[in-house]
Every structure is written in structure tokens, then in C-alpha cells.
Design brief:
Elements: H1 5-19, H2 25-33, H3 39-46, E1 53-55, E2 78-85, E3 88-95, H4 106-122, E4 126-130, H5 141-157, E5 163-167, E6 170-172, H6 177-181, E7 184-188, E8 193-195, H7 199-206, H8 212-216, H9 218-225, E9 230-232, H10 235-248, H11 287-294, E10 301-303, E11 311-318, E12 321-328, H12 339-354, E13 359-365, H13 372-376, H14 379-392, E14 397-406, H15 407-412, E15 422-425, E16 430-432, H16 436-443, H17 445-450, H18 454-469, H19 473-477, E17 483-484, H20 490-500
Parallel strand pairs: 3-4, 4-5, 5-7, 6-8, 7-9, 12-13, 13-14, 14-15, 14-16, 15-17
Antiparallel strand pairs: 1-2, 2-3, 10-11, 11-12
């Protein structure tokens, strides 16, 4: 007998109810016992209540090999859709580990392709919540094809919409490359793992024993490899911080920056900055305190906190508008530039430029790290990335030189002639090719060698060099420094400059794309 309309509606409701149960009560319980939320619980946390619209719930795999023909995988192991995050439209895909381990097969991948394409077409951010056992082996090459399609869409959307990946469970093999192609990667401690080859393969191939956490855990990738930008304590903390990050980002490269309410004053002074620079040139200080002093409400959202600590990057707001921060941190290796810190800063500069986020640089750099280890690791090539990134950028760029700005470090840290719109210096700034003693050893080598007391002569000449160059005044007379300011005035000056530069337009030569020295 033909079903009535009400009967068809009831059937739809029943089918929906069955599909959203994911892998069933036992698998959901097991997920919870592991300290992990389910895909749908994560979606509920990410999106504003009642706003998530699921796409392609009824999609199912079509493989009949290796017993898959009789196996039901609800929603094919991934929840996709869109909704509002703090009132703004965001697209997302959340892998469901309770359903066939969240394994990626042909249709699972195509669901992700679909929602990624929707995000790009709509010019809205895309968030991937990863928790998967990897490729669905039973489906063979179509699973690999699925990964390739995701990588392709990540790449095409790069610089067009913000892309964020949260590693909330296993992510292994080919699956790791989608997060690596995203703009930012979050990882949950003791739950999220990323590696191309797992501990068992490592042991079998090279006889090295290593745990999941040591090989590809959150801290391994946050502190050692630099693959992870943010470390979260648990699923709830991870999603909370994803939402914070989204609050700093525009919907797309064509969208205006999100402006938050601001109760901080444009003319607020920062008296604590007048005394933050130590009297001894070889003593460090915490650059993060400088950044926080200038920011609205002293709030600094740091990116890559645990990797290359001699460089600091992250977001602040100035009068409610997002600003990207690049800064040397003299507390670690005197703020020197090296392979990792150059990569860290260059990538962040390029992200900010892609999404029209102004860049504020704080410079205190003694130069590039010397030695065979750095030279053989390609510090020239990596340093060139930072020079390339700043030179390519067309967003408003302001530089504040707080103390040292020596040699190649001066060039690489947003100097005037690689793109800074305005360079300010504190009275404590030292702008020169190198430090006084090193310079005198080269310039006055013969005079020092022939002096009755070489040490005394070196000290005398170094003092004269310092008097002339270890201050911002010589550079200011040449227009290399636009203004010398009292440190307490830094926020007020930055506010005025960013407002004045807000509508900056700069066109580069027409071309297909740059060839950055990767």
C-alpha cells in the first residue's frame, strides 16, 4: 500500500534518527571512555545553538569488497555542514571515529570535497575536526583519490578563505597533509596524533622504539616540528580556542576584518615600557610584555607558542581591529634569527598579507645565528623566505625597533627598504651593521694590533663606535628611522599610524605568482 504523506514524513524522521546515532551506543561510550567527544558533540560545541545545517547525511559508501557490502557506516563516518560561530557563517567537517574508525573512503571524501567547495564559493572559513584511523583500506585506491581531492581543494582555497584543522584523534599517513596545508593546526594533548608512519612501522623499518605521543603528539609537533600551532588540553579547550582564532580572521581575502568592541583608549600611555629595556645590553626581557602593553585590553593571542621561541607571532587588536604581530624575543637566544624562527615569521607574514591583516613588527635582533649547523641547514634560504615575505606584503606595516637591529637581522625584520611603511625606534635602539666590538675588530684591526695595550685601544674605539652608531639618531638623520619615540607613547603612535594607513593600496608587478625560496 502506498504511504501517505504523513507516513513518508515519519519515515524520514526515523531514518534521520538512525543515522545520527553514529557508530552506536557502545562505540559512543568507548569514545567517551577515551576522554574524547563524538563528532556531533564537537559540532554542537563549535556552532551557535540551533544553527548547524548538516549536508549529505544520507551519503553511504558503495564498495562491496572485503565485506563492506554488508556494512552500514552511518553518514559514511563524517559529519559535514555549516552554521554560525559567534554569529558568523562557518563550514565544517567532523570525522566520526565511532563509525568505522572515521576511516576515509570514496564517499566520505566526496562529502568533504562538497563542503570545502561550498565554503570557497561562499567565501567563508572552513574548519576540519580530524579523528580518523586513516584510509579505508577495503576501498583501496579510491581512498587515496579522496585524499588527493582534499589536498587539491586545500591548496586552491589557500589565501582565499581561512582554513583551520583540529587534530582531536589519530591522523596518520596521507591524512596528515590536509592539516599541513591548512593555515592553522590545533592538537589535543594525549589524544591527537599526526605522523606519516606510526610507531609499529618505525620499529619494523629502522628498529627505533617510540610512543605515539613522542612520535607525533601535540607537544612533539608544537615544540619540535612546528607543524602544530596551538596545543589544547581537551576537546572543549580546543574548540573554544578555534572560536577565539576565528574572531580575529575575516571570512575571506575579499571580506572586511572583524571589528570587536573596544573600551581601551587610543591615547593610552604604556609607562611600563619606559623601564622594560635592561641597562645591560646582554640582558634579556620579555617581548610578550611589550606586545601586551600595546594591545587592546593587554590581550595577546599567541600563535606557535612552543616552537622557535626566539620569534613571537600572534594576533592583537588595536581599537578593535585585528593586527598581526611579529617580534624577536630576546629571552631566547637573544632573539637571534635562525632557520626555524625565519620560517615561523615568514609564514605568518604571508598569512596576514593574504587576509589583509596589518602587521606590527617589534625588532630586537642581533643578526642571524652563526655556525655550521645553521649554514648547512640552509639559513640563507630560510632567511630569504622572511625577506621575501615582507617584501611581497602590501598590507600596512609598522616597525618598532626596541633595542638591537644588527646586520642581516636589520634587513630581515621589516626594514624600511623591504616594505615597512613607517619605522619607529625607542631611544634604546642600536642600529648598525654589527656590535661595536666586532666592528672595531674589523675596521681598526691594524691599529688595535699595533697599540701598546690592544685591549685598552679596542675598548676606546668600541666606545667611540657605540657613541656614533649604537643609538637611533644616525639612522634617523638618513631617514631610515622615521621617528624616535618615548616607549610609553608606543600604543598611541601605533593607533594613529594604523588608522592613517588603513586604506593603503599597493600593487605589485602583474605575474602568475612569486617563486618564494621554499
Amino acid at each position: 500500500m502506498k504511504k501517505t504523506t504523513s507516513g513518508k514524513i515519519e519515515e524520514l524522521i526515523q531514518r534521520n534518527s538512525r543515522l545520527v546515532t553514529m557508530g552506536g551506543e557502545k562505540m559512543v561510550q568507548k569514545q567517551h571512555e577515551q576522554g574524547k567527544l563524538t563528532a556531533r558533540e564537537r559540532i554542537d560545541l563549535l556552532f551557535d545553538p540551533g544553527t548547524f545545517q548538516e549536508t549529505q547525511l544520507f551519503v553511504k559508501h558503495r564498495s562491496i569488497l572485503f565485506g563492506l557490502g554488508e556494512k552500514e557506516i552511518n553518514a559514511d563516518g563524517v559529519v559535514t555542514g555549516f552554521g554560525r560561530v559567534n554569529g558568523r557563517i562557518v563550514y565544517a567537517a567532523a570525522q566520526d571515529f565511532t563509525s568505522a574508525g572515521g576511516s576515509l573512503g570514496e564517499m566520505h571524501a566526496k562529502k568533504i570535497w562538497k563542503v570545502m567547495e561550498m565554503a570557497a564559493d561562499a567565501r567563508k572559513p572552513f574548519v576540519a575536526l580530524n579523528d580518523s584511523g586513516g584510509a579505508r583500506i577495503q576501498e583501496g585506491i579510491t581512498a587515496l583519490q579522496g585524499y588527493s581531492g582534499i589536498f587539491f581543494r586545500n591548496t586552491i582555497a589557500s589565501g582565499y578563505i581561512p582554513q583551520i584543522a583540529a587534530i582531536m584523534g589519530p591522523t596518520a599517513g596521507g591524512a596528515v597533509y590536509s592539516p599541513a596545508l591548512n593555515d592553522f593546526v590545533f592538537m589535543v594533548k594525549n589524544k591527537g596524533y599526526m605522523y606519516l608512519t606510526g610507531p609499529d612501522v618505525v620499529k619494523a623499518v629502522i628498529a627505533e622504539e617510540v610512543s605515539h605521543e613522542e612520535l607525533g603528539g601535540a607537544m612533539a609537533h608544537a615544540a619540535k616540528s612546528g607543524v602544530c600551532h596551538f596545543v589544547a588540553e581537551n576537546d572543549e579547550d580546543c574548540i573554544r580556542r578555534v572560536k577565539v582564532l576565528l574572531s580575529y580572521l575575516p571570512d575571506s581575502c575579499h571580506s572586511p576584518l572583524p571589528v570587536a568592541p573596544c573600551t581601551d583608549g587610543a591615547d593610552r600611555e604604556c609607562p611600563e615600557l619606559d623601564t622594560i629595556i635592561p641597562d645591560q645590553a646582554n640582558r634579556g626581557y620579555d617581548m610578550k610584555k611589550v606586545i601586551a602593553s600595546v594591545a587592546d585590553g593587554h590581550d595577546f593571542f599567541e600563535v606557535h607558542e612552543y616552537w622557535a621561541k626566539n620569534m613571537v607571532v600572534g594576533f592583537i587588536r588595536i581599537m578593535g581591529r585585528p593586527v598581526g604581530i611579529i617580534a624577536n624575543n630576546p629571552r631566547f637566544f637573544a632573539g637571534v634569527l635562525d632557520v626555524n624562527s625565519a620560517d615561523k615569521a615568514a609564514r605568518f607574514v604571508r598569512f596576514c598579507d593574504a587576509f589583509n591583516i596589518p602587521i606590527l613588527t617589534f625588532t630586537d635582533v642581533p643578526g642571524f645565528m652563526p655556525g655550521t649547523q645553521q649554514e648547512w641547514a640552509g639559513v640563507i634560504r630560510h632567511g630569504a623566505k622572511l625577506l621575501h615575505a615582507y617584501s611581497e606584503a602590501t598590507v600596512p606595516m609598522v616597525n618598532v625597533v626596541t633595542r638591537k637591529s644588527y646586520g642581516g637581522g636589520y634587513n630581515a625584520m621589516c626594514s624600511k627598504d623591504v616594505g615597512a611603511d613607517y619605522v619607529m625606534a625607542w631611544p634604546s635602539a642600536e642600529i648598525a651593521v654589527m656590535g661595536a666590538e666586532g666592528a672595531c675588530n674589523i675596521i681598526y684591526r691594524r691599529e688595535i694590533a699595533s697599540a701598546p695595550d690592544p685591549a685598552a685601544k679596542r675598548a676606546e674605539l668600541a666606545a667611540a663606535y657605540e657613541e656614533q652608531f649604537n643609538n637611533p639618531y644616525f639612522a634617523a638623520t638618513l631617514g631610515i628611522i622615521d621617528e624616535i619615540i618615548v616607549p610609553r607613547e608606543t600604543r598611541r603612535k601605533v593607533v594613529a599610524l594604523l588608522e592613517a594607513l588603513q586604506n593603503k593600496v599597493k600593487q605589485r608587478l602583474p605575474k602568475k605568482h612569486n617563486n618564494i625560496p621554499l
